Fold this sequence. Notes:
A: mainly alpha; Arp2/3 complex 21 kDa subunit ARPC3; two-stranded antiparallel ribbon; B: about 75% helix
Amino acid sequence: MHIQDGLLDVRTCVAAGVLAMSAVGYAVHRVRQSFADRAAPLMGVAAACLFAGQMLNFPVPGGTSGHLLGGVLAAVLLGPWAGLLVLTVVLAVQCVLFQDGGVTALGANVFNVGVLGSLVGYTMFASLRRLVGDPAGTVFGSVLAAWFSVVLAAVACSMQLAIGGRFVLGPTLGAMLLAHTMIGVGEALITGMAVSFILRARPDLVYGRNGQAGAVSHVAQWVVGGLALALVAAVLISPFASSSPDGLEWAIERLGVEPEPVEPVLAAPMPDYTPRGLENLRLAGSIAGAVGTVVVFVAASLLARGLGTRSSLAHASHAS
Amino acid sequence: MQVDFLDRYSRGTSIVHRCDARIKLLVALGLVAIIVATPASWWQLVTAEFAIVLVAYAAARLPWSYLATRLASTLPFLLLLACGIPLSHGLDRGWDLAGQLLARSLLSLAVMITLVATTPFGQLLSALSRLGVPQVFTAILAFMYRYMFVLVDELEKMRRAKLSRTFYPSLWWELRLMANFVGILFVRAFERAERVYAAMCARGWTGRMPEQDGDR
């Protein structure tokens, strides 16, 4: 999902960069306030940990593999703003030292993984935790939030690619959704099980468990709830409802320009053949997304139930 | 993870190595921005960019095989994406766009590879902080760079232990084990951070990084 240099057009780079920069700037301010002189060692080690965690590849059914993004995991453990800062640092190091993700696309990558993963993911997690109740809600919320953050990032990434006019939204979104529903299930399961492990081993490390911090304002909850509903409606339901271009596609067509009409350098191998499969790719992506949502919901409930009751948790943390 | 895996070549003595890190950083970022923003019809500028990158790499006297291997490692993913353009247009157009995309990406990659291969990370950090990046941010980067290798090694140790004990893992167990790895890694990392912080406080840490000479 790390976008390389040259894939996005200039406007998208600048817009995403400004958005990401202002979010990270505010995060620096918040982290300085709440962590003071503990910030550097704590965040640095957490970033190194996330970097190592992202090197773990998990097998994805279908032959490929995905790796952990860790946006929601970082937010659950450190809080939304510190999580955003840590993810930004990880992305910056991957971009500069490993050339994994481009410099000009860093803003877009920080937005997709950091802002959507940590800020939006945390809001979702905190709302669900309050709804279900601690500790089952902590696991339930982190599983669902991790899944949505990956799907959300895939959608945002496809839209950014499509705005430049080089990629067509429908098939790109379909392919991204197909790939990332699987990766998202892996991310959700690993995040959920890791959080439940940490709840047993060091429950104090989970952010905001005592209600001192970590509450999310009602406005943010409504915004994120609305966003999730809009996402479900636009991506997962609309292809079944009508065959006309939906809201997402319409928005991109308004935003995007047609690619510069250049004389083709390479002759197309099959000029008049438009594969029917491409129309269906979009539909396949939506079906995968819908199925994935159900699977993750069931998995989240099972994992949260498996965590046991509050008393057994207290017992476990006593014993350790 | 070997310590010199990343900056094996960054302690050379060529003219590019000796250049101030701030200048290198700004030039590299500017160059990438120009490469990305150049329209494909300005082929003279594209040729010039290509020449500049090659000359800079040659002036750094780095082995060409290094550039080739680094570029080749990103190629599969880039090719996949580049093929996605004509595919998503229905195979009748977009091939030239895919070519441009590939050229832009590879050129920008070459710029960044040259920058990193000629500048030790410590110099890069002090350049960043002297260019006005918040001190919290560079301090976090410095700590991350220090502990990245430690934690990756720790993970590798756990994985080797797992491989020598589990013989027929199912997908479910694989995921479970991996989640436990992540959990253990985080708990250990936090405990390490707490110890490190206590040790730093005992040595007079006030929240400001001491000035580095930029060698590490």
